[in-house]
Amino acid sequence: MSVTILAIESSCDETAASVCVDGKILSNYIANQTVHEKYGGVVPELASRAHLQNIVPVVDAALKQSGHLLSQLNAIAFTQAPGLIGSLLVGVQFAKSLALALDKPLIAVHHMQAHVLANLINESPPAFPFLCLTVSGGHTQIVLAKSPLDLTVIGETIDDAAGEAFDKTAKLLGLPYPGGPLVDKYAQQGNPLAFKFAEPQIPELNFSFSGLKTSVLYFLQKQTPEFIQANILDLCASVQYTIIQILMKKLKKAVQQTGVRNICIAGGVSANSGLRKALQEDGKKYGWNTFIPPFEYCTDNAGMIAITAYYKYLAGDFTTLDASPSARA
Ligand code: KG4
Ligand code: ZN
After folding, report:
1. I need a labelling partner for 102 at 20 to 30 A (CA). Which of 11, 157, 219, 289 fits?
2. Which residue numbers delimit the Gcp-like domain (predicted)?
């Protein structure tokens, strides 16, 4: 018998739904919330309201795209943690109501585990064990994956996430939110060695990005707006270069420590063209097998929730109707 799962993701500012059959993603529908742009960041209250408006049409679209009916579902999955509590609540409550109405099992998924397993949505997925550098707006982790449900965080940020480093430095440069994709675009036309910013010395496999933000701030305070404007491409390229250096140095260290040579990246920042190139170049240089999820599965999406839920379904890992979301992991 085949296994058909509907998955819902609502942890931050994207309302998303996906249908997968036997681990194959048939639809991956995302409604981006543009309401936050004018505030320079996600406004939690507005995000919850937008989820409430989006959830029914998004689930409907994902089902239609997949060619499946509600009656064909074997389970309903949702993102349980971490995220904005009001945003999570909308997805959790919707999934619970649907499971109750259809009398189908419920599967709770951890958002960060799902980012890692997005790598399995691939024509030739990585073999286990693999290492995954998960870099998003809220997290920066190196994860050792021994099987789909056996993941261990072996390094993480002690302050800002890599995505925050992109967004906060972009803000200092006067760029609109979220700055990451724009820094990426400008960096492609700039000189990464034009300016030098502080790289932290953090023990083990952990990361820190708050020093970079301060280093960029102090540098910019000494410059005129005209200088910043005239050098925006080089500034973006240099900031991006520093972030990638910080990430890749720790990833190399993790490879040395674990001996694992299947290396993945995941999360919103894995959409960054400079990071993707750096991973491929280091892969060639050091003999790693490298993997990057297709673009649409890098930033927040429900396809990654669906694939994770599929493995949980196979393991019989279900939750109950009294499940509740959690803002923290
Ligand atoms: O995984 P994600 O969509 O949401 C979270 O779970 O946080 O990641 C969003 C983060 C934002 O900080 C955004 O600026 C960053 O990913 N991002 C990028 C790029 N695309 C998205 N950062 C750098 N370059 C990009 N191309
Ligand atoms: Zn995410």
Report:
1. 11
2. 24-306
